[in-house]
């Protein structure tokens, strides 16, 4: 089960468990047109874009049921902003792994991915799933990114 991270009174990370996950494929509606992502009949994720590139997801079909869903708004960020934010997240994740032996062998996952405008360092935006658990939400976000980019 993934570990949810929260800041304790002393500033350290406290751990809590959440349930298992299942990843699925998706289709999306973005702006004025429909974009089909990977083939699959597991549901449709609808995305409404605003003038500045921010968008909301209100249909989470195919997203792992027991995995935390971020509230958004979302914004697909690109380089150099993404590279800088990803480097911050990687440094924070390394520090968390070094500080807490319970995280050994677990991945670090940002609930609102850095690529979608999530905080790279806020503990409230991080959980620690196993590699197998991490596949589901990572696949879902990657499919959404590909669909938004027209792939």
Could you name the key traits of this structure?
151 residues; five-stranded mixed sheet; 2 helices
Description:
The model is unreliable at 3-44 (pLDDT under 50). By secondary structure, the protein is of the alpha+beta class. The strands form 2 sheets. A 5-stranded mixed beta sheet has the order 4-3-5-6-7, with helices on one face. Strands 2-1-9-8 form a 4-stranded antiparallel beta sheet, with no helix packed on it. The chain starts with a strand and ends with a helix. It contains 2 helices and 9 strands; from the N terminus they run βββββββαββα. The relative contact order is 0.23. The radius of gyration is 16 Å and the shape is globular. The chain has one domain (25-148). It is 25% helix and 23% strand. A hairpin with a 4-residue loop joins β5 and β6 (54-57).
What layout of secondary structure does this protein have?
Blueprint lengths: L2 E5 L5 E5 L9 E4 L2 E4 L7 E6 L4 E4 L16 E2 L5 H19 L9 E2 L15 E3 L2 H18 L3
Parallel strand pairs: 3-5
Antiparallel strand pairs: 1-2, 1-9, 3-4, 5-6, 6-7, 8-9
Shape: globular
- C-alpha termini separation: 32 Å
**What is the CA-atom radius of gyration, in angstroms?**
16 Å
Strand order in the sheet with the most strands: 4-3-5-6-7
* Number of β-strand runs: 9
Largest sheet: 5 strands, mixed
Structural class, from helix and strand content? alpha+beta
Helix content: 10-25%
**Residue share in β-strands:** 15-25%
Secondary-structure element order, N to C: EEEEEEEHEEH
